[in-house]
Prior knowledge:
Number of strands: 9
Shape: globular
CATH superfamily of the largest domain: Butyryl-CoA Dehydrogenase, subunit A, domain 3
Radius of gyration: 21 Å
CATH class of the largest domain: Mainly Alpha
CATH topology of the largest domain: Butyryl-CoA Dehydrogenase, subunit A, domain 3
Helix content: 40-55%
Amino acid sequence: xxxxxxxxxxxxxxxxxxxxxxxxxxxxxxxxxxxxxxxxxxxxxxxxxxxxxxxxxxxxxxxxxxxxxxxxxxxxxxxxxxxxxxxxxxxxxxxxxxxxxxxxxxxxxxxxxxxxxxxxxxxxxxxxxxxxxxxxxxxxxxxxxxxxxxxxxxxxxxxxxxxxxxxxxxxxxxxxxxxxxxxxxxxxxxxxxxxxxxxxxxxxxxxxxxxxxxxxxxxxxxxxxxxxxxxxxxxxxxxxxxxxxxxxxxxxxxxxxxxxxxxxxxxxxxxxxxxxxxxxxxxxxxxxxxxxxxxxxxxxxxxxxxxxxxxxxxxxxxxxxxxxxxxxxxxxxxxxxxxxxxxxxxxxxxxxxxxxxxxxxxxxx
Length: 365
């Protein structure tokens, strides 16, 4: 870890665990509390951690950034989920050949002067494109639906992905508000009712003849981009689940301090050892095979998911009946484990998750 990266992570740790975690229940249930927590990240310049140095940095390396993601999920799933949309937008813009957009946006993305969401889950859906792009003079005309966009009222704009007639995907900026330009229109739904992370305000959208201008376009990617991107991040996405597992273990530790049960201490020690082993193996697997998908990476993603659910369940068992309260952290963490089970899920990840669950049943027989 670099000296600069260490300082960034120490600032993040202080904020996430010292200021965000004590308010996590409010943040989970109240969008205004989440807005305040997001503002805190902006004030600390922590919203563009993969930004290249020439645009202001800090350009954290892979291991440093994954440690940051784990810390965020340990403190608050809603804040982590919301913040990650913008951090992903930073990385996408940094990879664009549109130098004008990079110069305009990147210097303003660490402190919240420009905040962006992302919306390209529609590219994962099989069958006819949900959001189609048709080349026109000066850009592409978009038509269709966007099933999932997080950050309504948080982000004034977002990066959208749409499918071209060639099967390739074009990406660019769109306003994140209801808008009408002649016969072109953007219409967003009411925020969805969700079991977890609802305060991040996820909506869907209907797009009618909306022109994505060339100057607002980031890049065009191959037809299989979404699948390839998901495969590349198989292990890396698991760090959110490990953060959730750490959140559950924090409650087990608090229960031990209160109740003094030796079983609680043993459970905390055993599960912590397992988290550390999974984290170490994840970094080793990524270093060994890079962006290549391997059975080992799938196993590690399933292990991280398993740990999130088990540690959240351990927090409930350690807490007792209080965990049934909507405002108890054990209940929130258990719901967040649900999200990390299915977030960026591919068929291969689903199968690996189920195989691990079936394997645990066989071990008990």
